Amino acid sequence: MAAENFNILLATDSYKITHYKQYPPNVTKVYSYFECRRRNEAQFSEVVFFGLQYLLKKYLAGPVVTEEKIQEAKVFYQLHFRQAVFDEEGWRKILEKYDGRLPIRIKAVPEGKVIPRGNVLFTVENTDPDFFWLTNYIETMLVQMWYPITVATISREFKKILAKHLKATSGSLEGLDFKLHDFGYRGVSSQESAALGGAAHLVNFCSTDTVAGVLMAQRYYGCPMAGFSIPAAEHSTIISWGRHREKEAFESLLDQFPTGCVSVVSDSYDIFNACKHIWGGKLRERVLERGDDSTLVIRPDSGDPAETVIEVIRILEECFGSSVNSVGYKLLPSNLRIIQGDGIDLSSVKEILEKLRDEGWSMENVLFGCGSSLLQKINRDTLNCAFKCSYVESNGKGMDVYKQPITDPSKRSKRGRLSLRRNSDGFIETVEHGVGKPEEDMLVTVFENGSILQDYLLEEIRKNALLWEEEDPNCYQHNRDDLQAGEPLQKHIINGVP
């Protein structure tokens, strides 16, 4: 299952190559853990655990050590360090004793679980005393878990805001999982980032243009079709008609996609003129004749996001009228909606929704797209992700170990073997010093000696990540046959039920 041309021996910070020489004599066990540290000033208080299964399947499962890879690493590190520090003998023992499979055990939180910051998320330990150095050798790769965890967490934070306003201004959560569309593919650093980040967003939503994320969910998380999109214009398909033919460009889109939803970027020149005189004037009847399942989605793409959306919806109301929903908020005709994808982040989406609410508009009228703020404007410190050793064994005796820097108490690490439990008050907490009860431990063994022991489906993961507000189980079910037949449901289609 591991990538054929990937060399695990080279997938680490190079200074770790020398660590097998640095541990105390007679060490036989190194046990480490990963967490998102708790900080008082932190923006996010909880995290969504996601992405480990991909890393394990892609890079660590199966026979990952070969003679060719040992020789490649030996040559590389000789050139890199300009001295012989590579543990050729240690890696060859793994090849001979375990057929190249890693003698490592990883226990982890089930994917999709929402865990308060400051708790253990997974642990790593060697299963063979000869390979104590291997635990922290693979830290570099495993700490890259910060990325899908952070994207899944931010995506869920968007969902909290959207759910709050949708429920308040419509009376239900119908359509919630289509309210944030992933526009981030072109804004990330690589194809793999797009895949990991795109799949992490799909833990919470079903709306995306990031194909790489959908493919990852399909290949590594068993979901036939995790995300959906609609035909949509970009500026090139509008401006290629010329400025004087903007109306013809819009009309052509209505002709090309007479049924089903279609999104049209409408600010190549003047969004307000386009809404008032083209959509609401020359093409008004063409818009109104579209069915309820053939919505025209108008997309502004510049200017102050909140001010632009407010002005656009005012113009559209003037041209197309509005009605009032069951909780007293205004609605545009059902075949007319707005998507704002420019300048969207957690702050701006909240501002837009508050202004819409204050002016009496239901959130049902708008959708959002998000790119770099979802997939790229983050780093390992966004959630303060860290991997630390907490327990070692030497000469048959165990010892709890930790760091406690005097200059930063927040970096104090945990001690001993760890478990994760829900206490008698219902709160999730980490138990240190190896005193946790196995029957209470939320950590599950997912990897051992080169084998994947748990295989989570996106269906399960989405269920784990549901918001408390998502109360109606009927909103979150779909028939998998529909997905396999290529017939996306138009309503709330998060897999599973609360």
TrEMBL record:
GO cellular component term, pick one: extracellular space
Complex formation: Homodimer.
Pfam families named in the record: NAMPT_N, NAPRTase
An example Gene Ontology molecular-function term: nicotinamide phosphoribosyltransferase activity
Stated family: Belongs to the NAPRTase family.
UniProt-listed Enzyme Commission number(s): 2.4.2.12
Catalysis: reaction(s): beta-nicotinamide D-ribonucleotide + diphosphate = 5-phospho-alpha-D-ribose 1-diphosphate + nicotinamide + H(+)
Plastid is among the record's keywords: no
Enzyme superclass (EC): transferase
InterPro entries cross-referenced by the UniProt entry: Aldolase_TIM, DUF5598, N/Namide_PRibTrfase, Nicotinamide_PRibTrfase, Nicotinate_pribotase-like_C
Name of the protein this chain belongs to: Nicotinamide phosphoribosyltransferase
